[in-house]
Amino acid sequence: MKHWKKVATPTLAIIAFLAFWEFIVWFNNWPNYKMASPSDLIPAYGKYWNLFLIYGWQTLWRTVVGLIVAVIFGTLIGMIMGFSRAMRDALYPLLVGFNAIPKATVVPVIALIFIGQHDFNTILIAFMISFFPISVAVSIGLSTLEPEYRDILRSLGASKWTIFWKIALPKTLPEFFGALKVSVTLAFIGTNLMEIVEPHGRGLGHLFDSGKINADYPLMFAVLIALAFLGIVLYYIVVALEKIFAGWAERPQG
Amino acid sequence: MTNLIDIKGVTHAYKTENGPLPVLENLNISVPEGDFCAVVGPSGCGKSTLTRLIAGLMKPDEGEVWLHGERVTSPRSTVGMAFQNPVLLEWRTILDNVLLPLEIVPNSMSKRQKQDRARDLLALVGLEGFEDKRPSELSGGMRQRASLCRSIVHKPDVLIMDEPFGALDAFTREDLWQTMHRLRAEEPFTGVLITHDLRESVYLADEVIVLSGRPATTQHVENVKLSGRTDLEVIYTQEATDILHRLRHQIEVAQGRAPEVAQ
Ligand SMILES: Nc1ncnc2c1ncn2[C@@H]1O[C@H](COP(=O)(O)OP(=O)(O)O)[C@@H](O)[C@H]1O
Ligand SMILES: [Mg+2]
């Protein structure tokens, strides 16, 4: 695909989506409290742009930190499960069970345990909701390594660490990045869950909440779109990292 | 001539859920230095297990494996391995794949020397110009050629090949047989070739060992010295046909389909 097409195609898709949105709101003659239209959002951004910058940044950095912790912790758990059959059998039910707990119910518990530590709480939820796909991907990537790959290096006298570094890790990267794309969106959900359920006056979640209290519906929709925008930005950063570190896995399309 | 590989009374069983599975039983094999030894036998009889024992990846329950006058108890860098699956690393170029063993085996070569060595080998197997390609851009036969280069780049004493050409079509396979002869002429390794293609064993090997069904033991040793010829036509000589015939019969005995005495 030509370079300009790569940018033009998604841009066109977004414009088409916004036009469709504007159209159905106009067509159904929906009032603002039912559904705001894209044209209502522009004044909302114009009025509160400084809040969007401040709160958007708060949401963004806490999400990214939560995600980084999820990557480190998720990779470690994945490595433990990937290398040891016994640990995989032991940890899988625990992880699945933990992942099945709705995080909305965990939020008040966390908020109570670490009372007042807003940043910490938010990062913790972002981390908890997003590490699972990463550990599953890493453990599957490592445990499905064909034995011949290991034998090639082992027969030369390579250490376990060398085998991990030279073969297991790079071979797992495509799966890892696949999971990271899922985790990015999950981490945003985690951050906003904390910001909305346990309001402490920070982040886009708080802005959404104040929009709700003031019945400022365009503001609420504007927050949602801003969140979507941040999600897209972070997603494409992951895609760029994937291209650099796991670009080899991409097959030319025929 | 001294033996480079000595397998003395090796017995091995895998521990499985249904108790021990005897795979090798009192196996004796000797391969003189520089020779090429083909091992054939029924599927599942323990041929791959044998390669893992020679490479030191496993220890036999009983018996001893000796390489170059030293007892094998763990993997050693004087061994090269190639499998049916070329197991090239997709994220590396062909050249970097071939260089992999030199990153692990201690050696005194400079970066330049390593690259030259890898490029020479690639040229020898007909992969000149493909050094910077990814494995996914190569055909199955070319990947297997690259895999062969990787298995001998560190100048091993022993090259162990486990059905290396098993997944290739007949014509590609014959091409690779000839490549193998070319490599042998240039590189001083002793070879162990697991195969299920009798013509391949006769064309490439100096001796062919027929293993019995599981648990495998040496059933028959056939010396194959085809007057030093390395052209493919040699397979169709009377001499080769006689050997093939005898091997065919031994395989049938190993599979339990023919009585041992009949000939
Ligand atoms: N790690 C293992 N654990 C248990 N059984 C095994 C293992 N590896 C191989 N086997 C069994 O041992 C037998 C011989 O295997 P193998 O050496 O791979 O045979 P071949 O290469 O001759 O086909 C087979 O029946 C196989 O199922
Ligand atoms: Mg086998």
From TrEMBL, chain A:
Chief location category: membrane
Stated name of the protein: NitT/TauT family transport system permease protein
PROSITE patterns, sorted: ABC_TM1 (PS50928)
Pfam families in alphabetical order: BPD_transp_1
Keywords: Cell membrane, Membrane, Transmembrane, Transmembrane helix, Transport
Organismal lineage: Bacteria, Pseudomonadati, Pseudomonadota, Alphaproteobacteria, Rhodobacterales
Transmembrane regions: 7-27, 60-83, 90-116, 122-145, 176-197, 217-241
One example of a Gene Ontology biological process annotation: transmembrane transport
Source organism per UniProt: Celeribacter baekdonensis
From TrEMBL, chain B:
Keyword field contains rRNA processing: no
One matching Pfam family: ABC_tran
Database matches in InterPro entries: AAA+_ATPase (IPR003593), ABC_transporter-like_ATP-bd (IPR003439), ABC_transporter-like_CS (IPR017871), ABC_transporter_ATP-bind (IPR050166), P-loop_NTPase (IPR027417)
Protein keywords: ATP-binding, Nucleotide-binding, Transport
Domain (ABC transporter): residue spans on this chain: 5-238
SMART domains membership: AAA
One MF term in the entry's GO annotations: ATP binding
Keyword ATP-binding part of the UniProt annotation: yes
Xref: PANTHER family: ALIPHATIC SULFONATES IMPORT ATP-BINDING PROTEIN SSUB, TAURINE IMPORT ATP-BINDING PROTEIN-RELATED
Family: Belongs to the ABC transporter superfamily.
The name this protein goes by in its record: NitT/TauT family transport system ATP-binding protein
Species whose genome carries this gene: Celeribacter baekdonensis
Lineage: Bacteria, Pseudomonadati, Pseudomonadota, Alphaproteobacteria, Rhodobacterales
